[in-house]
Amino acid sequence: MNIVVCIKQVPDTESVIKIAGDGKSIDTGDIKWVMNPYDEFGVEEALRIVKDQGGEVTVVGAGPARVVEALRTALAMGADKAVHIQDDDLYGADPIAVAKMLAKAIEPLSPDVVFFGQRAVDDDSGVVSSAVAEYLGMPQLSVITKLEIADGKVKGTRPIEGQTVVLEASLPAVISAQKGLNEPRYASLPGIMKAKKKPLETKTPADLGAERSDFIEIATLNPPPDRAPGKTVEGETAQELAANLAKLLKEEAKVI
Amino acid sequence: MATKFVSQRNIRFLLYEVMQAQRLADWPRFSEYDQESFDMMLDTAHRLSSEVLFPALRELDLEPPRFEDGKVLVRPMVRQFLSQAGEGGWVGATFAYEQGGLQLPVMINTACNFMFCAANYSATAYLGLITGATRLILTFGSEELQETYVPAMLEGRWQGTMALTEPQAGSSLADVAVSAEPTDEGHYLISGQKIFISAGDHDGADNVVHLMLARIKGAPAGVKGISLFVVPKLRPEGGELVSNDLATAGLFHKMGYRGCPIVQLSMGENNDCRGWLVGEPHRGLACMFQMMNEARISVGKAACAVASTAYYASLQYSQERLQGRPLGAKDPAQPQVPLIRHADIKRMLLMQRAVVEGSLSLILQAAWYADLHSHGPEEGREEAFLLLDLLTPVVKSYPSEMGVIATSAAVQILGGYGYTDEFPVEQLYRDMRIHPIHEGTTGIQGMDLLGRKAKMHQGRALKLFVQEVGRDIAAAEGVEALAPQAQRLTVAMGLLRQATEAKMALAAEGELENFLSDATLYLELFGLVAIAWQWLKQGLAAASALEGEPSQAEQDFYNGKLATMRYFFAYELPKAHGLAQRLGEDDGLTVAVQAEHFAD
Ligand SMILES: Cc1cc2nc3c(=O)[nH]c(=O)nc-3n(C[C@H](O)[C@H](O)[C@H](O)COP(=O)(O)OP(=O)(O)OC[C@H]3O[C@@H](n4cnc5c(N)ncnc54)[C@H](O)[C@@H]3O)c2cc1C
Ligand SMILES: Cc1cc2nc3c(=O)[nH]c(=O)nc-3n(C[C@H](O)[C@H](O)[C@H](O)COP(=O)(O)OP(=O)(O)OC[C@H]3O[C@@H](n4cnc5c(N)ncnc54)[C@H](O)[C@@H]3O)c2cc1C
To answer: What is the ipTM, given to two decimal places?
Structure first.
């Protein structure tokens, strides 16, 4: 089984995010970067599949030089090799442009399965995996929490509102992983030492013969509104308190 | 609820900007490392801490080990964590490659383990004990013992312990009485009782391997007759594990640190408890003491870690809790301000931060000496060992004693809420209290420092320390922002020298009781000076970083460092004067007071 896992490097959710002076991007100066948490499910699943069925796991990431850190983390978890598409402007670019680059890098690897996280926690666009599937001409099973691969076929389960739908496709296929698919492992110390010796190839968009094609651009980024102050429900008795709470929920919060 | 328990930024500041941990990668032992791999390890440690350990902090306190049908039952997370620690390579991270380790520098491992301890000290104690016991077997044990025990311990499946204490032998290890009778079959028959043995029995591991002090039949009395043994709970026999006649007699209920059991052990009730000698007969305490330095530094690290968690909990609270108004603003219609706006609250925050970050710096300094001593350039090794040996009691005691005060300040900042179990600080305050007690009480550390370490090799270690500090004072004198602190540290070093001379004069006169009666105060004075030194080092690094053009967030960080440094020199270091005054007096007041004076 030849598996590719695409990895995006995103700000750690603990980092304080500030909007940059241009109003369209974030100030990346003091951010701590990590692997997109949904991508970890993809890495973990890929490692489990090759453990059972043999094969190789290649991780692919696009963006500035720092993206190598996220790729190394995947190598430390156990992936075999990495490809880094180095392009400083790709962070925050049109997801379609990113997908096109990724597809160019993935194609020559002739994978049986390509994993993505179901979305990236920074921009929440959720577009890249589908666009790559389209560029590669592969079926996509999206938002998957359970996966089986056998006899050249893949079967994936997606939860919908308490029910599940089971999807099936022939390989090769693109899978986007959802929380619940597995419990990602932590990089081990021996894994970290080995990661340094694993192959990591750096390619520029020019090497890939890929041209940037942005269809959309970010118009503005708006910070969340300040949290409104809390309100204390008044009342003498439990009944009165409950009645006043119900009134607030209905008239002010408009949730009942 | 609080989410932060350590500052990753601070850890990196201390490692790379103050201690220059990058240098470690230049030594052959660590040649496979670089800063990137150190960083990945720190990141992984932080994830394990925040995702596995920290969420179980309260659970381990609320549901302490139970003793049922002769078994000690602990929370399932203990087994899960030990197996993750085994798989992750954490048990033997600093061991040599050929011992199944990763040759990780002690300094980096210390920083990682600090995060574990801050997230959950009880859970981390199990891991630390396996590491310590495994190291003893690897260092002094026979090949057979190594093959039998080490693999399962490295995997985190078998618990290790340090079994020293007995009911009549706590501080006084000379009184160890558990006996070991030689047999013709290569093992000894062990009998007696051990008490307070951490992780001494529990169902989170498949076996327990005690590294136990005992006295071979006929051995001389006192410390020169104590030997070290491996005494397993289950012994491997014919490919199976069979009972080794080692029973858990009971479990103690503790004030804090409640997630890890301390048990009473009874050996040889059926005359079939087997032990295997580790190292030479009668040399057990020497073996154990080699590990004890490490264990004592670990206690300092754990104390500092618990204080870190309490500091961040109280910091967060002080930013959110609205209470009171600025002194000038008396208009009650105005909203109240967050606690952190009050000077007295900032004082308590600065105190905690000064203790936490000053201690961590000293702990990493000790780790640096440990690495230097074992693997550094030949010419610096002996000096590094002397400095480590000298500073060990300080590294153990300053964070432990001041940690109690720092966690108390965290409770104080939370006011009445801090006293309830709605917030984590009351637990942390309880968890902290063990540290001045185990691995040698503060009193014992004081006597070790003044009675042994300050004198050893004609005071050579102390001279080296004075040189080390002197170098940084000289550097700081040339920096405008640090000159006043450099001056104050020079004065404090003078006080330490005078106190040492006064005490040594008593020793020379043979006034032993008088010489050591205030050893604890001497330890306290030494701690103040050592931490001031570490703050000056941090000041040097921060001042130099501010000369570049760091981002706003980085400027805030470095200015916070300088403010905390100034706090330490203004509020903490002056205590040296009071201590020095008392240490200069030779009236032997406490020696003279008679037990009868406490009659009523
Ligand atoms: C939670 C916990 C975990 C522990 N874990 C372990 C473990 O894993 N393995 C192990 O072997 N032990 C362990 N211990 C035991 C611990 O090391 C001892 O409690 C400690 O060494 C003190 O001994 P003690 O309790 O008998 O107190 P004592 O020795 O009775 O001391 C009581 C007080 O008297 C002072 N004192 C004692 N002797 C002198 C003296 N000569 N001069 C002046 N002052 C003196 C001490 O400083 C102390 O303040 C643990 C204890 C606890 C509470
Ligand atoms: C066990 C217990 C029993 C109690 N019993 C009673 C009782 O019987 N009756 C009753 O009425 N109350 C009772 N209380 C409440 C108790 O009196 C309050 O907890 C106490 O007054 C502190 O108030 P607080 O908890 O709101 O803390 P806060 O007022 O929020 O104080 C938190 C911290 O901020 C500091 N601080 C607050 N304001 C300022 C300021 N302006 N400048 C500088 N520092 C400031 C405080 O010194 C403290 O360190 C009890 C509390 C406890 C825990």
So the answer is: 0.90
